[in-house]
Amino acid sequence: MLNRLLSNDLPRSRMLAVVLVGLLLGLAFAPFLFPGVKALNVAAKVLVFIVLVGSFDLLLGYTGIVSFAHTMFFGIGAYGIAIATTRMGPTWPALAAGVAGALALSLVLALVIGLFSLRVRAIFFAMITLAVASAFLTLASQLSDITGGEDGLTFKVPGLLSPSFALMEEPFLGVVIDGRLLTYYLLFVLALVLLLTLLRIVNSPFGRVLQAIRENEFRAEAIGYRVVVYRTISSVLSALFACVAGAMLALWLRYNGPDTSMSFEIMMDVLLIVVIGGMGTVYGAAIGAALFLVAQGYLQDLLRLGSEAASSIPWLSALLSPDRWLLWLGVLFVLSVYHFPTGVVGRLRTRAAAAALRKA
Amino acid sequence: MTIQARGFDWIPLALVPALALVMLPLVGSPSSWLTLTVAGLAMGLIIFVIASGLTLVFGLMDVLNFGHGLFIALGAFVATTVLGTMSDWTGSASLWRNLAAVLPAMLVAMAVAGAVGLAFERFIVRPVYGQHLKQILITMGGMIIGEELIKVVWGPQQIALPLPEAMRGSVLLGEAAIEKYRLFVVVVGLLVFGALAWTLNRTKIGLLIRAGVQDREMVEALGYRIRRLFVAVFAMGSALAGLGGVLWGLYQQMVLPQMGAQVNVLIFIVIIIGGLGSTTGALVGALLVGLMANYTGFLAPKVALFSNIALMAAILLWRPQGVYPVSNR
Amino acid sequence: MSSASPTGVAAGTSQLLELRGVHTHIGAYHILHGVDLQVPRGQVTMLLGRNGAGKTTTLRTIMGLWQASQGSLHFEGHDITRLHTPQIAAMNIAYVPETMGIFADLTVQENMLLAARSAKRASQMDAARLQWIFGLFPAVETFWHHPAGKLSGGQKQMLAVARAIVEPRDLLIVDEPSKGLAPSIVNNMIDAFAQLKESGVSILLVEQNIRFAQRLGDTVAVMDNGRVVHAGAMQVLADDTALQRNLLGLAL
User: Which has fewest Cβ within 10 Å: A51, A70, B64, B156?
Assistant: First the structure.
C-alpha cells in the first residue's frame, strides 16, 4: 500500500526514509511540538515551498528545462487570492474565484511560453523566461489599483481560517485551536496531497518520457515522442502547482506584494533548494525546503553572533553581518553545484546503494 | 543561414532607421522625436557596449554567463569611488577637466572589472565548460556573491553619481533639447563599436575570434590555443561591461548594487534579438531596444516594459536564431 | 591484433608518424581496438577500409581531437599521445577533416590567412607559394574575396586542401578529399595531390575512391573493425585481386 501511495518511488535509503518520516511528523505536529509564532511561520513556509520547489524539480530535474518564470506563477496564485478577497470580500466563493482565475491565467501563460520554446533553443528559453518574469514583476508594482502596487494587498480570510476564530475555548494540548491552526492544517493536507501527486506524475509513463527527453532529446524525438508537446505539458503542470503554492502562501500571510512572491530572491531560493535537496528526486524538494528555510530563519541569528564576535576586525565583521546572509547562501550554492550535484537525497541514495553492494 | 549576394545582409541594420522613421508621425513634433531618438541611441549604445562581450563569449566558447550583470555594477561602483576623489575636477566648469576625471574613472572601472572577470572565469566558469545547466546556476550564484561583496565594500544602499558640471544640461538643435551627456555617450559608444569592428575585421586576433565562433575545433586544428583567447575575450567582455556600468551609472546619476541584475534581463533580450555570437547583431538589438524603450516611454509608459518583450517575440518569429545568426559547426 | 609485417618499407627507416596499440573510446563506445600504423616520410600513405572501420576516428585521434585511451602515438620521434590539438598542429601537421572545416562567413582570403600561422596580415603570406597554390586550385584565386560559404562543394574541398598547404607542413592528413565530388573535379584533385607528392610532402590520406588510391598511394594500410588488418606497399595490394576482394570487398 505504501508502494502505491508513493507511486513506487521509495526512498531507497534507510537514512532518507528516517529523515522523511521525521519531516512528516515534525510538520504534522508542528503547532504542538514547536510553540511560538516564528516556528509555525517557518513550518508553514516549508509546506508552501515543498509544493513550489517540487513543481520546479518537475521542470528542472525531470524535464531538464530551466525556467525563471516559476516565481511568476507563484505570484499569480498569491495575487489571485489577494485580489479576489479584496474585491469580493473574505468569503469562500471569493477564494474559489481567486484560485480559479489564477489557475486559468497560469495555464494560458504557461501554454504560450511552452509553445514558444518550439522556435527557440533551450538557452534562449531560459533567458526569455527571465525577461518575462521580470516584466511581470514590474507590472505587478505598476498596476497599483489592482495589485496594490509596491505596498501590496492586505486582506482578510474567511471566518473559519481567520485568527480570531476559535474552535474551542480551552487550549488543546497547550495550543489554542484557532483559525491559524486550521489554516496550517489546510496547508499541510494540500502540501501532502500535491507532493504525492507529483510523485505519481514523475513515476508515470509520462514522467518516464520526460526523463528520456532530458537524457537524449534527439533520440526521444526519433523514437516518435513529440518533444515539444511533452515539454509544454510539463511546464503547464509545473506552473499550475506553483500557482497553488502561491495561493497557499497568500492564505497564510493574509498579505501579498511583489517582493513576497515574485522577487528574484525567491527564484534563487528555489534554485538553491532544488540543488541542495537533489534535482530529479521529488523528495529533494521536501528535504531541501526544510533544511533551507530552517537555516534561513536561524542563519541570520548565527551570523549576528559571528559578526559581534569579530567586531574587532571590521572587514570580517562586515562579511559576517546578518544582512549579508545571501552572500553565504550564494557561496553554499556554488559549492553545492560543484561538489554536491546530486544533492542530499542523491548522496544518501548513493551511499545506501554502495552499502547494499558491499553486503551482497 | 543564407548569405546575401556578395556579402552583407542589410535588412536587420535597416530596421533601426526604419523604426525611428515609423515613430516620427506617432511622436508628432520633430523636436521631441529628435530628443527621443538621440536618447534612444545613447541608451542603445550603452547596452551594446555591455552586451558585445557577452555575445562573443557565448559564441566563442558556448559559455552562458548569467552573471554578466556583476561587472556592470562593479564598474559603476568603482567609478563612484574614483570620481569621488576628483570632485574638484568634476565640479569645474571646464569640459576638459571634467573629461580628465571621467576618462580615468572609465579606465579604472574597466581594469577592475577585467581583473575580476579573469578571476570569475578561472574559478566560476572554467570548471563547468560544456555543461549549460550548471553554467546558468553557477554564474547566477557568482553574481549573487559578487553583488553581496559590493554591498560589503560600498554599503547596501544606492549611491549618487552626479554628472560633472560641464556635462550637464542640454544643447539646443532648433527646438529640440539634446542632453549633452547623451551626445557624449553616443561618441563613446561609437568609438567602442569602431574599435571592436576594427579588431574583429582587421586583425589576426579578430579573425581568430570570428573563426572560433563558427568552428572552435577547426581553429585548434590549425594550431591556435583557443582557450587562451577565450580567457582574453572573457576579460575584455567584463571590462566592457564595466565601462557600460560607468556610462549607465552616469546616465541614471546613481548606482545600486542590484543594477547588474536589472540590466541583465535587457542584455539577454538584446543578444537574443541579435543572434548569439554576433557583434553586429548585438548592435542592432541594442539600438532597437534603446529606441523602443524611449519611444514607448514617451507614447505609452505603461506598455514600455512589454515593448521589449514584444520586440523580441516579433524578431524571433521572423528569424528564430536572431537577426544575424552565426553559422555554427 | 598486430598488423601483417609492413612490406615495402625498408626496415630501420624512422617513421614520420607511428601509432602503437592505440585504443580510442568515444563515450561508452570502443571504436579503435589497438591500431598499429606507420606513416613513412616523403610518401603517400593510403588508409583504406569499409565505412565504420575507424578511419576517421584514427585521424581524429592523431590530431588529438579525441584522446587515445591506450597505446602511444609518436611524431618525428616525439610522444604526442597526451598533447592537445593546437600543440599537435603546431608541430607542422595539417589536417583536412571530412567536413572540410571551412569557415563559411569568412572570405577565402581570410580562411587562408588563418591557416598561415606566421602571417599577421594578408600581405605577409608567401606570394610565390600562393601563386603555386592558385595554379593547383584556380578556384581559390577566382573567389579570393568571396565568403567561403558561397563556394560549391568541390571548390570548398579545394580551399580546404589549399589551406592545409599555405605554409610548408611536414605531414598532411586528409580525410576523404574526393567525397561527393564530380569526376572531373576528382581528376583535378588527383593532379593536385600528385604535384604535392612530387614536392616531397608526406601525406596520410583516407579515401574511398579507388583510382585516387591507386594513382597516388605508395603505402597502404587497410582498416577493419577498429584495427589495421593489412599494411604494405600499394603495389603489392594492387597486384593481388584476391587480397583486394578479401580486404575491401571489391577489386581495385
Answer: B156
ipTM: 0.88
DSSP-assigned beta bridge partners for residue B171: B178
Q: Shortest Cα distance from A205 to chain B (angstroms)?
A: 25
Q: In this predicted structure, what is the pLDDT of residue B264?
A: 84
How many angstroms separate the CA atoms of C84 and C69, rounded? 14
Q: Which domain holds residue A339?
A: 2-359
Q: Which pTM value belongs to this model?
A: 0.82
Residue of chain A whose alpha carbon sits nearest to that of B321: A120
User: What does the pLDDT read at residue C250?
Assistant: 64
Number of residues that this document lists for chain C: 252
Q: At residue B151, does pLDDT exceed 50?
A: yes
How far is it, in rounded angstroms, from Cα B184 to Cα B41?
A: 11
What pLDDT is stored for residue B5 in this prediction? 38
- CA-nearest residue of chain A to B134? A337
Smallest Cβ–Cβ distance between C63 and the set B204, B221, B225 belongs to: B221
Among chain B residues, the shortest Cα distance to A340 is held by B134
So where are chain B's domains?
11-187+225-318
* Amino acid at position B324, single letter: Y
Q: Name the stretches of chain A with pLDDT < 50.
A: none
Q: For residue B143, which of A296, A306, A130 has the smallest C-alpha distance?
A: A130
Scanning chain A, the segments in alpha helix (DSSP H) are: 2-5, 14-28, 30-33, 37-57, 70-88, 92-116, 122-142, 144-147, 179-202, 205-215, 217-223, 227-253, 258-261, 264-277, 282-309, 314-319, 325-339, 343-359
The Cα A90–Cα A96 span in angstroms is: 11
Pairing state between β B176-179 and B170-173:
antiparallel
Distance of CA B13 to the CA centre of its chain: 17
CB of A60 closer than 8 Å to CB of A270: no
In this structure, what is the dihedral angle of CA atoms B171, B177, B182, B183, given to the nearest 10 degrees?
-50
- Hey, which residues does C45 pair with through a beta bridge? C204, C219
Helix (H, G, I), strand (E, B), or coil: what is residue C126?
coil
Distance CA A199, CA A201 (A): 5
**Positions in chain C whose pLDDT score sits under 70:** 1-14, 249-252
Q: What is the pLDDT of residues C206-235, one digit of tens each?
A: 987 777 788 888 899 989 889 998 888 888
- Residue A119 has φ and ψ, to the nearest 5°, of -95, -10
CATH code of the domain containing A181: 1.10.3470
Kindly state whether A124 is in contact with chain B, defined as any CB-CB distance less than 8 angstroms.
yes
Single-letter amino acid, residue C108: V
**Coil, helix or strand at residue C152:** coil
Which residues have CB under 8 Å from C38's CB, separation 6+?
Answer: C6, C9, C15, C17, C18, C19, C219, C221, C231
Long-range contacts of A108-112 (CB under 8 A, 24+ apart): A109/A69, A109/A72, A109/A73, A109/A76, A109/A239, A110/A73, A110/A232, A110/A235, A110/A236, A110/A238, A110/A239, A110/A240, A111/A232, A111/A236
Report residue C93: phi and psi, to 5°: -110, 130
> Measured between alpha carbons, how far is C189 from C100 in angstroms, rounded to an integer?
14
Q: Is C168 left (phi over 0), alpha (psi -120 to 50) or beta?
A: beta
